[in-house]
Structure formats: C-alpha cells, structure tokens
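Known limitations

Files may contain more than one protein. Parsers should not assume a single record per file. Below, a two-record file is shown to illustrate correct handling: read the sequence, read the token line, then continue until end of file.
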Amino acid sequence: MIFAGRGLIIGSGVSGRGAAYALDKLGVASTVTATEFLPPNMSGYDFAIVSPGVKHTHPIYKYARIHDLPVFGEIGLAATVNTKPVIGVTGTNGKTTTVEMLGSIYAAAGTKAVVCGNIGRSFAAAAADGGYDRAVVELSSFQLLQSSPLKTHIACITNIAEDHLDYHGSMLEYRHAKLRIADRQTKDDYLIVPTKFNLVGMSGNPTLLYNGKDCYEKEGKLYVMGAPIMRTCELAAVGRHNVENALNAALAAYVDGVKPEAIAEGLAKFKPDSHRISLVGEYDGTAFYNDSKGTNIAATLAAVDCMKGSVALIVGGSDKGYDYDNLFRGLPGNVRAVLVVGANCAKILDCAARMGYNRIVPCMDLSEAVSVATAGGFDNVLFSPASASFDRYKNYKERGEAFEREVKKLFGSV
C-alpha cells in the first residue's frame, strides 16, 4: 500500500479532515496540522498529504526533497482508494454548477453518484465510504497539482480565464494545472473542452469532444452528438453561462451511457444554490441579486449578461493577482455604476482610471455600497465581486449572506 506508517496532514479544512478520515478507514495513523511550520518530530512521519491551499513555499516541500519524504494531495489519496469511474470537472467558471447538474442527471437516471471534491465534500472521505457507482468530482487548479495518480474516465474543462494568478504566478502555469485533469487518460476516456481550446502541454491521450461541435444549442433546443435533448426554456438554471454548463453536463452523461430522457429530467430539475445570481428580493422597484460566487472577472461578466435593465454593480474583495482591465473592457452599457469595496478597492479604482471608466464609486463596506446603489434608482443591484472573499469573510457563502443581510436591513425585513 502506498500509504503506510504514519502520515502528516497539512491543512485542517475539508480536504485535511477528509484525508484523515480516509486514512483512519485504511487503518493508517495520521496527524493533522494547520500550522505554517513543520512539527519538531518530522522523523516520525512516513509521508505527507497537503491540502489544496498549501503554497509551494511551505517548508514541507523543501523537507521532502532533502529527506525523500513522499508528498501527496488529498485527491491523490482519494484516487488510490476509489474503485469507480471518475467524472472530473475543472475550469475557471461553471465547474460547481456542472458537477451539480451531473449529480441531478445521474439521480434521474437511477445511477448512484457521489458529488464531491472542491464542491464541499472531500473526495477522499467519499471514496473511503464507497457505496456509489460514479464519482463526480469538482477539481480546482490547486487540487490538480497534487492529483496523481488520479485517472478520470470523463473529464471536462469548462473554460480558462484569468484567476488565481497570485498562486500560480502566470496564466501559463494556471492552464498547465487545469490540463492535468487529462493526465493518464487514454483513447478509451473522454475530454470535453470548448471549441478551439488550446491543448498544448496536455500529457494524456483522450478522445476529444467539443462544446460547440459535439454538443450545442440550436433553435431553442439542446443537442448532444446530434440527438435532441430538451428545449432550452425547460432549463431551471437561467443565463447563457448555464446553457453552456448544461451542455457540458449533458455531453458527459451521454457518453457515459445515460439516456436523453434522464438527462433532460435531471437538467429540468436542477436549480443553482444561493450566491449564484440569486434574487434576494425586489424593493421599491429595484431587484437585488446575490452573486457572491462570482469570484473572477469572467464570472462577473457572465452575471452582468443576465441582467435586464439598468445595473449597479458591486465588486471588490481580496486580490487574486490579475488586473481588472478586462472587467471594464467587457461591461455592457446597461451597467450605469460600479461600486467598489474590499481590500483591492484601490487597485480596481486605479484600473478604472487607466481604462477611462468614470462611473465608479469607492465605498467603505457592503452596507454603504448597498445604500448608495439603492439611492441611484437602478433596475438591478448586482453583487458580483470579481474577487475572492478572504479579506473580510471566511468564504463566498459568508460574504453572500452578509450582502443579503444588508439588503434586508435597509428595507426593514430583518
């Protein structure tokens, strides 16, 4: 067995706890640490498992090189325990929705599938428990860096846009991390990518499928491999981006043998959770939308594209290493004001000035941003930060809940 002796798990979040649970089920002892420093008794460990957020600068990597200590990721651990086909989804945007759609499709088909990974349940813990026929796994770029020996039977890369450059250092490295989802794939496996996707650097040898060619929308219907699946209007998830997500999920399920009727049923039943262009309420003629999950520019522009009428857009949070030129370059004319909060406020303001965008207002916090936006008489107020949440919040969910509280507080509904 690869994992024998005693393991050191670095990171006490979902991945770390899941790794500890899986090792315990295997009868392997482990210690979980959240510290940035190594424990004093490193000689007592036979391998290490790092959580996705552990940076390359962590001392575990230097120690491992010097002392020949094997280092794995939680996904790598899961891959050694898992015995069922893996459907893996990565990408800058849409991966969570796509895996959730797949979960709904498999449920409609009567196939027992576990939805796990970056979505909130540890793949290692799920694999240790077993009892499923398919593992539908959301895979972040961080997780893919430590995913060996993972092999996906069906993989999907939804898209690649600027994100996490503070971690990867460049778009090239970020893209290479995403391509690792195809590592160890053969011609008997499938990789779904957008049409004209850049595959330079891919090490696997999968059968390629293209969103736009092998699945597409035509005259108000969704098609997969030439077969009609359903009318677009039957999708419960609205927006052009969700059409693309549905096509990716439908194609993945179809090549896995799921019948079109079950695909249509699963997609018709699926509704995105809160914090994804979710209507908080309508007050005094203004609709307030929570899209706290919009943590990068591409996601925010997709959310804006769903808005009808004038929009006040609230952005800002913790920085991810990219500039915001593409945000201001891509904003449509119905965005009449951009309100900025968070730790990267100054950076966004500087970018707006450089791009000649003057409909922008700095705000101290979400409370002020909601008040200013409300006073403008816009048809919509959209909170889609194009930034991470870690400057003030534990995660995007906590941030979204804070936005909703401010809206309801303003209108006396809290």
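...continuing to the second record:
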Amino acid sequence: MEKKTEKKINLFRVVNYIVLAVTIVTALYIMANGLGLIDSLDFGAGAYYYADIPEFTKYTDGAWYTSPIPMWALIILFLIWGAVMYKFWGWLEKK
C-alpha cells in the first residue's frame, strides 16, 4: 500500500515540476516578445504603480464603465473584499 501512495506522490511532484517549468517558459516568452503591452500606455518604470500614471483619473472617472453603483462604492467594496480575504488567509494559515 505504501508503494502505491509513494508513486502517487512522485507523480504529483513530477506534474508540479512540469507545470512550474511550463509557466516559467511561458512567462519568459511573453516578456521577451512584449505580448500584452499597449504602446499608448507605456509609463516606463512606474507602469506597475497606478499613482505614477499621468491623468489616472480619466481611467477611473466612469466614462468607460457605467454602473448603477458609484465608482467610490465599488472601490470601497474592493477594499473590503481585500480585507476579508486577508483575514481569511490568516485564519487559514493558523489551522
């Protein structure tokens, strides 16, 4: 019985390493070929920090997205969701 369990664990490890390798190769391919980049939205080194984006308010003013819920409420809901998930993650790690 132990041999069968050991084989499953080894197979699982092999599959995990294959998925990891494929993910890394895919990420490198995407970065090397610049896939997904939008030339008009090139913000240089600050591209990952929304505060560095010039005229950031035009992306959040609601002109491109209409909802019966105001944008400020959506942002607050997003922050609440993040806090709940953070607490849940902490609880999950303690178990």
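Parsers that stop after the first record will miss the second one. For reference, the second record is described as follows. The helical segments are 2-33, 57-60, 71-94.
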